[in-house]
């Protein structure tokens, strides 16, 4: 199975560099890594180019102009560029456990998308990691706010990873799906601008198309670097788009990934 790892980013070079280091240390490397860049300055481009030269990763930079928060469109453009059969989405502030990709591949299942969890790092632990370029964390590491999510166990994962269709806890910072399932619903809805709900609306259409949610626990672990929260100023407008997809059992968006395929 050819895996395309897609990493969203916006003007956070230090975090993205650390995340790429954790990708490079995977027990199973993805076939390609695509940076879905929502308009970062040239500093990010330079770091990606330098990393591409120095590493063994098949790295592509997918950039769009900075016109505010447009994660849906940025992801669509990156997915359209991808050559893999299976898409794994993460954010550019998620440091990956060495078995993150291996775990996702092991849990991939036809007719399902995967929703994983994250481990939250404190502000001080984040600063320490960025200064020391630290990518190795564990259940015993200091500066972790939810230690349970840091436990890596195949036995516990088989026991607690369940299929259940609901929207609570949907996050594209740790999500995976077959590319064709994404194309079948026309990807993310480009009408979403500003932070929030573009991931939930995408999942609503996946569920409405017959793709089930599989909650992954104790595998595919990632460590979330602390940051200030994004503004919620567009949330009311985005909630309306989400509710429309729920109320009308929508499984397709008109303004989606087909614009870039």
What is the topological layout?
Elements (H helix, E strand, L loop, with lengths): L2 E7 L3 H12 L7 E6 L4 H13 L4 E5 L7 H11 L4 E6 L2 E3 L3 H8 L4 E4 L3 E2 L2 H10 L21 H7 L1 E2 L10 E5 H6 L13 H11 L3 E4 L6 E3 L10 H13 L14
Parallel strand pairs: 1-2, 1-4, 2-3, 6-10, 7-11
Antiparallel strand pairs: 4-9, 5-11, 6-9, 8-10
Helix pairs in contact: 8-9
List keywords for this structure.
261 residues; alpha/beta; Spore Coat Polysaccharide Biosynthesis Protein SpsA, Chain A; eight-stranded mixed sheet; three-stranded mixed sheet; 9 helices; 11 strands; 18% strand
Structure description:
It is globular and about 50 Å long. It contains nine helices and eleven strands. The protein has 261 residues and is of the alpha/beta class. The chain has one domain (3-259): Alpha-Beta Complex (Spore Coat Polysaccharide Biosynthesis Protein SpsA, Chain A), CATH 3.90.550.10.
Class by SSE composition = alpha/beta
Give the mean pLDDT: 97
What is the count of structural domains? 1
Separation of the first and last Cα atoms: 21 Å
Query: Could you state the CATH homologous superfamily?
Result: Spore Coat Polysaccharide Biosynthesis Protein SpsA, Chain A
Q: What strand line-up does the widest sheet have?
A: 3-2-1-4-9-6-10-8
Total DSSP helices? 9
- Architecture in CATH? Alpha-Beta Complex
Indicate the percent of residues in helices: 25-40%
| Spans where pLDDT lies below 50 across 5 or more residues | none
Fill in the CATH topology: Spore Coat Polysaccharide Biosynthesis Protein SpsA, Chain A
Task: Provide the succession of SSEs.
Answer: EHEHEHEEHEEHHEEHHEEH
Strand percent estimate: 15-25%
Tell me how many strands there are. Answer: 11
Write down the Rg: 17 Å
